[in-house]
Amino acid sequence: MPFVNIAILEGHDRDYAQAVADSVNEAAITALDFPADDRYQLIQEYAPHALQLQTRTADRVMLHLVLRSGKTDEQKKAFYRRVTENLAARPGIDPHNVMITMTENNDIDWSFADGKASFLEG
Amino acid sequence: MPFVNIAILEGHDRDYAQAVADSVNEAAITALDFPADDRYQLIQEYAPHALQLQTRTADRVMLHLVLRSGKTDEQKKAFYRRVTENLAARPGIDPHNVMITMTENNDIDWSFADGKASFLEG
Amino acid sequence: MPFVNIAILEGHDRDYAQAVADSVNEAAITALDFPADDRYQLIQEYAPHALQLQTRTADRVMLHLVLRSGKTDEQKKAFYRRVTENLAARPGIDPHNVMITMTENNDIDWSFADGKASFLEG
What we know:
4-oxalocrotonate tautomerase (chains A, B, C), Macrophage Migration Inhibitory Factor, Tautomerase/MIF_sf (chains A, B, C), alpha/beta, Tauto_MSAD (chains A, B, C), 32% helix, homotrimer
């Protein structure tokens, strides 16, 4: 966990995409207290008209996380702060233009490998 | 809110994509009673074989909305009606070929800007 | 149901994508007990750096299913087993490199066609 969908604008290079992914991952591990080897990310590029964040036209990112229930409000607040700080530092995205939403599920809803319900079947 | 993922077929022009996005947004604001400046949309194009809506081969759209819990069944029904009416009018998609699903989350699960939990930290 | 998002690596041909889609669909219908004509799938291709499954570099797949609440843990476990067995057989993906997560919603949250809440308005 978590399963992270990252929407960025097209036209950037691979280093930009990797910087976004790294910044998001570091924030998830530190603020949401996930294991250091957690990394389940999909990065998708969009044309400007296909990534509509109200009327904002500057560089922007939209994140959707799926995670197990159990994280506290304080942890989620810390994640929002941390991920926007990280993205401002690298690759340099204005915190105003980062939108995040999360949905939760349960232990049974995860299989990380080998066709097992990882939290229940080890 | 809501966070709207829009899947359309490739091969259309940008006006088509914008018409779909506008039609979906208008329905969300009016039927689900969201603020007029709400607009959080990702539009993704798919090859026909990559957008499988049972066996339907005509022009088609699949929508996935993430929204806070609290909307009534009647509001959601009104949204389904309105969005298919809108899409039939512009860009002209048969209501039979519009598939929609929604998942809900909570106040803490949204950050629209500035690294804050928008519904809890203003 | 379910609404299935399938993330695969780019560089494969259409037969590969179709094999993945078929394998996932067969597992959903048999293990999760869905109707034979259920098929609501989006298949998206990603560059290797954009589909990050921990540090795994081999061919890999990430699945996200949205489905109504009500399926049992045993059904979900059976799905995890079945889908990885299917994908190993066709197109030949190591079960270790298949990651799956699910989120649930309710009766009102589905419209399969015609602007109706399909489970409530028939």
